[in-house]
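#structure-requests
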Amino acid sequence: MTDARPHFSAVARQMLLHDSGGELSAAACAVSAASVLDRLQQRLAPLLGAAGMRALFARAVKVTLMEFTVLTRVRAATLDEKVNVGESLSEALNSLGSAVAWAAATALFANFLEVTSSLIGERLVLVVLQRAFGDISSVKDQDAVEGPVPGDA
């Protein structure tokens, strides 16, 4: 799954940049990744449940570990409900150089989007992303191609 659909990589990068305010340091990436995870949890927990969300994120971390072994402690955090996964992710990314932190975070969230779309469908994932990150162009472009979601105003 390290070959996440290309648009998921672009969307993941845009989610991270959205929450970093365009700052490209490892510290900004770390804070942004924790914020993105929190937003996704808020939007997806009603659909998947907290345990389902945690399980999908754990799977994405496991897949991403193949390329970015620094996420090992994040994997451990996903398996312990008492540990804040966002803090663990932030600490892991903060320990990296800027380029590697951004690459790892982008790969992680692209894999998460891929895993989640395999469960609930790509269309629903894109709707959730549109509502959480309204100004992500890849999501808007996809929505324009597929049309509005029934019931959306």
